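Can't paste images in this forum, so I'm doing it all in text. The chain is below; anyone willing to post the predicted structure tokens underneath?
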Amino acid sequence: MKYLLLFWTFLKIGALAFGGGYAMIAPLQDAVVFNGWMDAETFTKFLGVCESTPGPIAVNMATYIGSIQGGFLGAVLATLGVILPAFCFMLLLSSIFRSLQKKRLFKETLAGIRPAALGLILATGLWMVVSGILPKIQEYSVTTFDWKAGVMMGILFAIFPLYKKLTKKKLSAVALIGIAALLGIAFSAF
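Text version of the structure:
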């Protein structure tokens, strides 16, 4: 039964979350917490690991959650569940894309999906910032404020535009992850 639940949960997420991996984070968190597979704080921590490992976030999350819930078979079924809808959709879309590309309804559908995907991505980003600084929120009262996470986020938010202004280049994601890792190591001493 747990294998069917893993597959079905990730199949629904893969089928209904448009906009890529970041747009899938909010439904992933809802499903994972609802099913009791992880609490919200553990999910947030693991999300950082998934972002820094190679591969799509949703696939990394599905594989990990599937493996902790059902071993190798759970990992395979959860991963298959999350990628199967996109695979089928792309297979179907690629065969009829040229004819659909000119249809007004298709263009309007895509135009409607874009803001929804952007909203999911922005909500996820806001959730990540808030849960990083205020990791334990119980109902309506904040129980802890993680000053280390707040200072690290402030430093990271300042480094990105400062680097661009000084060097006229964008800071790479790899460098930003490295800086975040070094800050985490430095602040763990406190």
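The chain has two domains: 2-133, 146-190. The radius of gyration is 19 Å.
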